[in-house]
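Progress note, sequence design subtask.
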């Protein structure tokens, strides 16, 4: 009878019961590289800079429309420094389609308002407008760094990166002491901390004169010394506050990684590393690092932008191929994180269909909410294809759904890829505390996501 069970039942195993010591070491080494990348990539702009640096070291060159593309060539194209597309030209024609992996490099954060600076009661603050889906109470009383650019009227771009280096000052949003929080504690978690309340303290020493707003003047004077900017320059700035935590190993067994921005730099790094490592692919491999996913993939640097279609059409033109023919034969892994089952909040998960730490890359046939609304829902044939290539390549993976039916939901770039007539499925790393300032992933799942993308890129 046991044989019949073995034959007929679908059973899943913890990844650590399936890998040997060699793969354990490989996963650890891979994650060291990821932690370094994550610590140095606090915004989409910084992720693009770091990805280009790694790509150029691996032989990638900037793509110029019209250039001849021989098999094996490695090219990249930056979209305004906020999104990146990379390609390794395959042996076969682009008319046979491409293998695409698409992740996003923007993460939830606190953007500064366009007129952010104000003084009250001899303290100086920065007003913010949050970006992406956050639980606001999580963003107070944690150290923050400031990153981004100030675009001067002259056209010059000033880079800001403050709080990252040891010895840099950092910033914080205060919260009410429990002793006086009787009224606040009666509010709901959604109302206890408000969007307009997320103001960052930036200074307290008054400028040595007799005028008004002396602390604000002192702060502006420091900013002017450091960056040559004045208050009006904030109008054309993209400055953002992100958590000032370094990513680090979590657990006595060091099996997990805590850090800011796993969603979705953990998948972005996986596909970046995979496209750097793929050798002589049969079909052309494409790696997308997209912006603006957290606010609906809108805008010129989001996945709904024509920038991707233009890049692909330019590649196809080099081989005299109609990009529509290329799209209809292409396959896309929408590499985004999924919700890992969290025993502390077991209520919202349906265990059998949830994804678990250490069970490998999480494949989501569909995302969306309320009866699969807003998802592209990959076909059974696409899932069968993944079963085939992952099992052949020894990728540990699990099929997953975010949570219980009608408990909520979410979306990814998948539907925007599928709308282009590209077979697309979601696949990525399960995360706990998603969208929190400090998210948690399991190393084995990170490594298996890299292996999964590499398996797709390498498929003959
Ligand atoms: Mn995501
Ligand atoms: Mn997200």
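Output:
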């Amino acid at each position: 009878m046991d044989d019949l069970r073995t034959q007929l039942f679908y059973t899943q195993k913890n990844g650590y019961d399936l890998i040997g010591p060699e793969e354990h070491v490989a996963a650890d080494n891979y994650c060291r590289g990821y932690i370094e990348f994550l610590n140095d990539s606090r915004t989409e702009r910084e992720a693009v800079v770091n990805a280009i640096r790694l790509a150029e070291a691996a032989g990638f060159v900037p793509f110029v429309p019209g250039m001849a593309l021989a098999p094996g060539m490695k090219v990249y194209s930056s979209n305004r420094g906020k999104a990146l597309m990379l390609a390794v030209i395959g042996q076969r024609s682009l008319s046979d389609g491409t293998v695409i992996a698409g992740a996003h490099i923007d993460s939830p954060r606190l953007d500064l308002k366009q007129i952010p600076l104000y003084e009250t009661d001899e303290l100086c603050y920065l007003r913010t407008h949050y970006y992406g889906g956050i639980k606001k109470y999580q963003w107070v009383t944690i150290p923050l760094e400031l990153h981004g650019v100030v675009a001067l009227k002259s056209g010059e771009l000033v880079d800001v990166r403050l709080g990252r280096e040891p010895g840099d000052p950092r910033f914080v949003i205060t919260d009410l002491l429990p002793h006086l929080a009787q009224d606040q504690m009666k509010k709901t978690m959604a109302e206890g901390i408000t969007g307009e309340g997320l103001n960052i303290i930036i200074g307290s020493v008054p400028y040595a004169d007799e005028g008004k707003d002396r602390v604000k003047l002192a702060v502006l004077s420091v900013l002017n010394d450091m960056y040559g900017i004045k208050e009006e320059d904030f109008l054309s700035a993209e400055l953002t506050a992100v958590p000032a935590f370094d990513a680090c190993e979590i657990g006595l067994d060091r099996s997990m990684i805590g850090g800011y921005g796993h969603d979705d730099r953990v998948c972005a790094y996986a596909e970046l590393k995979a496209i750097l490592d793929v050798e002589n692919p049969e079909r052309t491999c494409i790696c997308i690092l997209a912006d603006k996913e957290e606010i609906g993939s809108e805008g010129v640097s989001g996945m709904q932008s024509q920038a991707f279609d233009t890049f692909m059409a330019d590649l196809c033109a080099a081989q005299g191929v109609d990009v529509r023919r290329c799209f209809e034969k292409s396959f896309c892994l929408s590499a985004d994180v999924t919700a890992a089952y969290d025993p502390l909040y077991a209520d919202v998960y349906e265990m059998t269909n949830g994804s678990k730490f250490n069970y490998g890359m999480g494949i989501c046939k569909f995302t969306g909410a309320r009866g699969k609304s807003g998802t592209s829902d990959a076909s059974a044939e696409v899932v069968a294809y993944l079963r085939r290539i992952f099992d052949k390549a020894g990728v540990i993976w699990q099929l997953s759904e975010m949570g219980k039916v009608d408990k909520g939901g979410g979306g990814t770039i998948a539907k925007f890829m599928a709308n282009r007539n590209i077979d697309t499925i979601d696949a990525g790393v399960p995360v706990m505390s998603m969208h929190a300032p400090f998210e948690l992933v399991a190393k084995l799942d990170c490594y298996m996501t890299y292996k999964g993308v590499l398996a797709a890129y390498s498929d003959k």
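Residues 235 and 277 are 42 Å apart (CA to CA). Work on this subtask will continue into the next period as scheduled.
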